[in-house]
Amino acid sequence: MASADPGPILPELEAAEAVAHDRAMSLPLIVALAILAFAAGFHLHWALGGRLGFSVSLPQRQDGSPVMAHRLRWWRPAAGAVALGLALLGALALAAQGHIALPLSDSLIGMTLAAIGTCFILRAIIPTPWTGFFKRIRSTRWARYDSWVYSPLFLLLGGALLVIALRR
Protein backbone atom coordinates (compact mmCIF):
# COMPACT_ATOMS: atom_id res chain seq x y z
CA MET A 1 0.00 0.00 0.00
CA ALA A 2 1.43 3.33 -1.03
CA SER A 3 1.38 6.21 1.39
CA ALA A 4 0.18 9.62 0.35
CA ASP A 5 2.86 12.20 -0.23
CA PRO A 6 2.21 15.07 2.22
CA GLY A 7 5.14 17.04 0.80
CA PRO A 8 3.30 19.94 -0.84
CA ILE A 9 0.91 20.34 2.11
CA LEU A 10 3.53 20.64 4.86
CA PRO A 11 5.03 23.98 3.77
CA GLU A 12 1.53 25.49 3.62
CA LEU A 13 0.71 24.16 7.10
CA GLU A 14 4.00 25.42 8.49
CA ALA A 15 3.35 28.85 6.98
CA ALA A 16 -0.17 28.91 8.44
CA GLU A 17 1.16 27.89 11.87
CA ALA A 18 3.81 30.59 11.68
CA VAL A 19 1.17 33.23 10.92
CA ALA A 20 -1.06 31.94 13.74
CA HIS A 21 1.89 31.99 16.12
CA ASP A 22 2.72 35.56 15.14
CA ARG A 23 -0.86 36.52 15.96
CA ALA A 24 -0.85 34.81 19.35
CA MET A 25 -1.18 37.25 22.22
CA SER A 26 1.89 37.67 24.36
CA LEU A 27 1.70 37.39 28.14
CA PRO A 28 2.29 41.15 28.62
CA LEU A 29 -0.59 41.89 26.23
CA ILE A 30 -2.91 39.46 28.03
CA VAL A 31 -1.98 41.00 31.40
CA ALA A 32 -2.47 44.55 30.10
CA LEU A 33 -5.81 43.77 28.47
CA ALA A 34 -7.10 41.99 31.58
CA ILE A 35 -6.21 44.93 33.82
CA LEU A 36 -7.58 47.46 31.32
CA ALA A 37 -10.86 45.56 30.94
CA PHE A 38 -11.25 45.25 34.72
CA ALA A 39 -10.55 48.95 35.30
CA ALA A 40 -12.63 50.15 32.33
CA GLY A 41 -15.54 48.00 33.51
CA PHE A 42 -15.50 49.59 36.95
CA HIS A 43 -15.21 53.12 35.54
CA LEU A 44 -18.07 52.50 33.11
CA HIS A 45 -20.17 51.07 35.96
CA TRP A 46 -19.56 54.24 37.97
CA ALA A 47 -20.22 56.51 34.98
CA LEU A 48 -23.59 54.82 34.48
CA GLY A 49 -24.63 55.32 38.10
CA GLY A 50 -23.30 52.16 39.74
CA ARG A 51 -22.25 52.23 43.38
CA LEU A 52 -20.10 49.09 43.71
CA GLY A 53 -16.66 50.21 44.85
CA PHE A 54 -17.68 53.87 44.92
CA SER A 55 -16.57 54.39 48.53
CA VAL A 56 -12.98 53.49 47.66
CA SER A 57 -12.83 55.04 44.21
CA LEU A 58 -11.24 58.34 45.24
CA PRO A 59 -8.35 59.16 47.59
CA GLN A 60 -9.48 60.10 51.10
CA ARG A 61 -8.23 62.43 53.77
CA GLN A 62 -7.56 60.98 57.22
CA ASP A 63 -11.15 61.79 58.24
CA GLY A 64 -12.44 59.68 55.30
CA SER A 65 -13.66 62.59 53.17
CA PRO A 66 -12.68 62.56 49.49
CA VAL A 67 -9.60 64.62 48.65
CA MET A 68 -11.37 66.04 45.61
CA ALA A 69 -14.78 66.64 47.24
CA HIS A 70 -15.09 69.93 45.36
CA ARG A 71 -15.03 67.95 42.08
CA LEU A 72 -17.57 65.24 42.96
CA ARG A 73 -20.21 66.65 40.60
CA TRP A 74 -17.80 65.87 37.73
CA TRP A 75 -17.01 62.41 39.07
CA ARG A 76 -19.37 60.37 36.87
CA PRO A 77 -18.47 62.07 33.55
CA ALA A 78 -14.81 61.76 34.51
CA ALA A 79 -15.27 58.05 35.21
CA GLY A 80 -16.79 57.69 31.73
CA ALA A 81 -13.84 59.50 30.18
CA VAL A 82 -11.42 57.23 32.06
CA ALA A 83 -13.31 54.15 30.81
CA LEU A 84 -13.02 55.43 27.24
CA GLY A 85 -9.34 56.22 27.70
CA LEU A 86 -8.65 52.74 29.05
CA ALA A 87 -10.46 51.17 26.09
CA LEU A 88 -8.38 53.28 23.69
CA LEU A 89 -5.22 52.24 25.53
CA GLY A 90 -6.25 48.62 25.02
CA ALA A 91 -6.67 49.32 21.30
CA LEU A 92 -3.15 50.81 21.18
CA ALA A 93 -1.73 47.73 22.88
CA LEU A 94 -3.53 45.46 20.42
CA ALA A 95 -2.30 47.55 17.48
CA ALA A 96 1.29 47.45 18.76
CA GLN A 97 1.26 43.67 18.45
CA GLY A 98 -0.53 43.59 15.10
CA HIS A 99 -3.93 42.36 16.26
CA ILE A 100 -5.81 45.40 14.95
CA ALA A 101 -4.95 48.19 12.53
CA LEU A 102 -5.09 51.82 13.60
CA PRO A 103 -4.41 54.88 11.44
CA LEU A 104 -1.34 55.73 13.54
CA SER A 105 2.35 55.17 12.91
CA ASP A 106 4.09 52.32 14.69
CA SER A 107 6.51 54.78 16.29
CA LEU A 108 3.65 56.91 17.67
CA ILE A 109 1.94 53.83 19.09
CA GLY A 110 5.19 52.65 20.70
CA MET A 111 6.07 56.06 22.15
CA THR A 112 2.53 56.49 23.52
CA LEU A 113 2.56 53.06 25.18
CA ALA A 114 6.02 53.68 26.63
CA ALA A 115 5.02 57.10 27.98
CA ILE A 116 1.77 55.86 29.53
CA GLY A 117 3.49 52.76 30.93
CA THR A 118 6.13 54.97 32.53
CA CYS A 119 3.44 57.24 34.02
CA PHE A 120 1.65 54.23 35.52
CA ILE A 121 4.86 52.95 37.10
CA LEU A 122 5.65 56.40 38.47
CA ARG A 123 2.12 56.68 39.90
CA ALA A 124 2.79 53.51 41.89
CA ILE A 125 6.24 54.44 43.22
CA ILE A 126 6.37 58.24 43.60
CA PRO A 127 5.21 59.16 47.10
CA THR A 128 2.28 61.53 47.45
CA PRO A 129 0.15 62.01 50.53
CA TRP A 130 -2.59 59.72 49.16
CA THR A 131 -1.29 57.43 46.41
CA GLY A 132 1.47 54.95 45.68
CA PHE A 133 3.37 52.39 47.68
CA PHE A 134 5.14 55.10 49.69
CA LYS A 135 2.14 57.34 50.51
CA ARG A 136 2.05 59.20 53.83
CA ILE A 137 -1.64 58.70 54.66
CA ARG A 138 -2.17 54.98 55.19
CA SER A 139 -5.09 54.73 57.63
CA THR A 140 -8.08 55.19 55.28
CA ARG A 141 -10.00 52.52 53.38
CA TRP A 142 -8.77 54.10 50.15
CA ALA A 143 -5.15 53.82 51.32
CA ARG A 144 -5.54 50.10 52.03
CA TYR A 145 -7.09 49.48 48.61
CA ASP A 146 -4.37 51.59 47.02
CA SER A 147 -1.62 49.60 48.73
CA TRP A 148 -3.05 46.15 48.00
CA VAL A 149 -4.93 46.64 44.70
CA TYR A 150 -4.48 49.93 42.84
CA SER A 151 -0.73 50.52 43.10
CA PRO A 152 0.19 46.88 42.29
CA LEU A 153 -2.12 47.02 39.26
CA PHE A 154 -0.60 50.33 38.13
CA LEU A 155 2.88 48.85 38.47
CA LEU A 156 1.96 45.64 36.63
CA LEU A 157 0.08 47.47 33.88
CA GLY A 158 2.89 49.99 33.44
CA GLY A 159 5.46 47.20 33.15
CA ALA A 160 3.30 45.27 30.66
CA LEU A 161 2.84 48.39 28.50
CA LEU A 162 6.57 49.08 28.52
CA VAL A 163 7.33 45.52 27.46
CA ILE A 164 4.74 45.76 24.66
CA ALA A 165 6.19 49.09 23.50
CA LEU A 166 9.78 47.81 23.52
CA ARG A 167 9.05 44.46 21.85
CA ARG A 168 7.54 45.92 18.71
Overall description:
This protein has one domain. Helix 4 packs antiparallel against helix 5 (141-167). The mean pLDDT is 88. With 168 residues, the protein is mainly α. It has 5 helices and no strands.
Fold topology:
Blueprint: H1 9-23, H2 27-47, H3 75-96, H4 106-125, H5 141-167
User: What is the number of domains?
Assistant: 1
Order of helices and strands: HHHHH
Distance linking N and C termini: 50 Å
Number of DSSP strands?
Answer: 0
Low-pLDDT stretches are none
Instruction: Report the C-alpha radius of gyration, rounded.
Output: 21 Å
Give descriptors for this structure.
single chain; globular
Offer a quick outline of the entry.
This protein has helices at 9-23, 27-47, 75-96, 106-125, 141-167. By secondary structure, it is an all-alpha fold.
